[in-house]
Design goal:
8 copies of one chain form a homooctamer. With 168 residues, chain A is of the alpha/beta class. Chain A has 6 helices and 5 strands, in the order E-H-E-H-E-H-E-H-E-H-H. Chains A, B, C, D, E, F, G, H: It comes from Tectimicrobiota bacterium.
């Protein structure tokens, strides 16, 4: 059985509700993942260790969700050459502006692929991971093409329904 | 000879100075790329066409740099299943806040891997592209490990120099 | 029977509640419109096609409502010479700052007439469309003058009521 | 000879450099305009009077550029049923955020078609005015289609030049 | 009987709940005031007229509360030499940032004395009006000194109560 | 000879260039003032003492200019029943947003009449002080009416000049 | 019995709910503290006096929580050489941006150790005070090391639980 | 000879100009310090190691200066029970808003004592470190009292000079 391809990390279980959107996306595409709770500030050694070891276990993409002074994705990125995707979470009174800036404004040499704040971003983190994995997996590529087509059809259906309801 | 693996797109040559940081990074890692000027708003059909055709020519990652209401990365992402990296450029009086939000706040289903505003982000876009390509290219992986080590050594050297100058 | 003069587009039915304010305004002035669900990112070809064909069907003004990295109005504006009105919708944790900047900060050559964030903006999009159509329609002009007068009278009435209640 | 179709208003000659971008756009399309200095706060009666009388002189679109607590466009819009376009100008230490919000966040009933902050917005104000006038002027429509095509060709040329310089 | 010394204006009765804080403050100090509903955008002539006539009826201070692109205080200030106090109201999705900037960033020559956003600001508008009137009214001065002392005593009492509850 | 009617305070001589705009305004209206350097944080006792004693020396309005965490106006307002006008100064990298919020967001009971950030605000602080003093000084009232008329005429002249240059 | 080592000050009992987080942290570490209600603006003399006298009573660290134009921490810092910790509280419509900037942007010479906005910041203020006191108190140092370890173990436990629930 | 009491860390020598303000403050008070270049992202292991070992070498306070997604202070704080002071540096196009939020918005359990953005903050970091060390060093306490008095006298002198120049 295949080991996890994606490592999803969150700093606290209070971020779980948001990050479920990411897990659902990975599940939809049948991508095996592992979920880890590890904090940049409360368990830094464990977090670094996790990032340093991820590649050797076959993980290919890391996803980190964090709020406030969201350092988690950056701390992972500092320790690995794997692509790291960051999901800013709006868990402080500043509504995610803090998490967004703390995730995206990374210095030269250590990119974090930053997603939108909150649930949309969590879902998109999963999809970006799939897009990356699909580069060497034709089945995943096909699933992504189907997914894109279904999204497009979904829009057309919504359009038809709306017109049906209003117009006649 | 290998075709381009990365497609770098900018909406206008006024963004070229910033995006050179990206090209330099790709050059450092020996990753073949193609550079295209195409605008989401002034040449939309060409931009969509470019994104739709990129994969079949062997391009694996798209990078888009844009300022203001920066739609370029999103417009590319709408047309391809390749990973798309966005570089927000601070070319309006609002100092890049507009480009950052217009690039990163993508809706569900269409992620853009957003980098920091400006030159740091442009350089990191190149490095993230290398990280993605390295997943199936052990040579690139080794280069990334060397790059990370060199960065670390660079810090140590800077430290030694500074201490030499001040102290000793 | 007259065809639609205004094309109202929204990227998702989740924006419908806001955009109803726009439709109500158009209904109040008796302006025929068509309502379309089409997404800049989930159905890009359909959205571009819609914009390219709108003029030939007699549509004279386009209105687009979108949240987050709100590209919809800009994508329409890229494909048509019709005036395009954008309504930023506050549907992300960043409260509409993202949608506002992504709608208004358009580059040279492709204007989007941007309204206030949310319901006020949606209503005003309808009224601006009427103002544009009224330039060649004396009946609409008269309706607008009546509308302005009624607004003014409404303020006076509110004033009288308030004074009646408080004072005596 | 045709009277002015567009009324361009600025609150102070210090805004002239920005607003020249608007005038240039109108000149490019051969649209006759009138330029007026009138301030919402220093000459309020004159400003209101200007807006009230504009339509009867044949003016069809008003454009207002202002910085800081930019009330000019709103004050014009309060007095006319003509479409009013607002250009926020970054003339205070707050870099145009003040002018943008003071222009765009208009209450229900009185829309201002808001453009980007600064020179891009000023140019686009001119183009939007042309788009509105073109609805009843086939020559202007043709000019706009030519303009759009030229923009698109300009991108292709820039692309060719860049590729010539770098590669070939 | 004394005529009103303070003119309180709001653009819409939806701002009444906030502005009641202002009226309460004026009532506490026994300052006679008049309350008017008049909108900068829906009833501009009436609003200008109100401001132009206020002084001759004995009004000495104007207070205006408005949200969004809050032009009301500025429009009053343009028409009078009386001091004008502005209360920004958070009635849009942008949480009062728009109203604050649209009220405070007035151009040279036309000051608006801007208060905090919302209820605190509304109450303080009343108190500032009292402070201004007190400059020529020794009774009001005494009331303000008493008010300041009572505030100070209120803090001491709250302190005693809290300490009693916790410690003791 | 009349004593000073206005007390202008700045926390540091580095704010002097901005505050000169205020002094010039007071000079234009012939209002006697005193200028004091006193800091909320470096000389707190002196600052409090200054505010406590101002009224008894005949000062009627206080004006404070400060940047960063601009507490000066608030600290003065805490110690006096005189109206206090605050001028936020953009002397930090955050461009005056800090000074603006730290000046305007005063709690209930202690208003600060806040002006625009920087030179416009400094000039307007002087004019607001004149407006307040004019309530009991018919000569100042007349000067203010003349000033308003001159501003209005200045706009008309600027308009004529501009039209002369362009058109004629 | 030991006197209080930490002085916790809040401007109003409405900030008590937030500041309880701080008190709980101090209680957890067994650090004696005193709680005072005193306002920078409503009881300025008392607040200054409190700060001037704190050191002589053995207090070693001051903590101040305040919202809006949060001057409390700065006013304390102006009067003492003790370290002062500031907790910005989000009690205005501007969500704590005002309190954050008014607390952190202190001028040269008068630092305020600023914490995150709201409850996290209040709790961290208590912990920072403990860290400072621990420099001369080996028992507290040990407690802090235990605390850090417990936090780390807490993360591991949360991780185990989550994995147990999902996987197993 | 005494070992360093304060450890000053910066992520890159490009931050040196700002951090010199901190070193100057420590020099003025005769506090021995060590200066280290170490990056949270380019040399993470070294940075963590530095923080873990600082206390055992007698260092009592850590100061970290960083820009952009400023994680440095937080990464240090995660590894030590020493107080950590953070200086946000405005080295990105976002003018320090990113560095401020990424430094101050720390989660529960790991405080960073955040200073103002840029040079003022760097200087204040040095002074806060002195205030902390002074708690167990009466000489430093005396120096701080002298420093505060000198600041106060400096204000008085500036006041005298200004009055001399203008008045006399």
């Amino acid at each position: 059985m295949a080991g996890p391809k994606v490592g999803v990390v969150m700093g606290s279980t209070s971020d779980q509700e948001i990050m479920e959107e990411c897990l659902k996306a990975l599940d939809e595409f049948g991508v095996p993942y592992e979920l880890t709770v590890s904090s940049a500030h409360r368990s830094p050694a464990r977090t670094s260790e996790y990032a340093r070891r991820a590649a050797e276990r076959g993980v290919q993409v890391l996803i980190a969700g964090a709020g406030g002074a969201a350092h988690l994705a950056g701390v992972l990125a500092a320790e690995t050459i794997l692509p790291v995707i960051g999901v800013p979470i709006d868990s402080s009174p500043l509504q995610g502006f803090d998490a967004l800036l703390a995730t995206v404004q990374m210095p030269r040499g250590t990119p974090v692929a930053t997603m939108a704040v909150g649930k949309s971003g969590a879902r998109n983190a999963g999809i970006l991971a799939v897009q990356i994995l699909a580069l060497s997996d034709p089945d995943l590529s096909q699933k992504l093409r189907d997914f894109k087509q279904k999204m497009s059809q979904g829009v057309e259906e919504a359009d038809r329904k709306l017109k049906g309801k209003r117009g006649g």
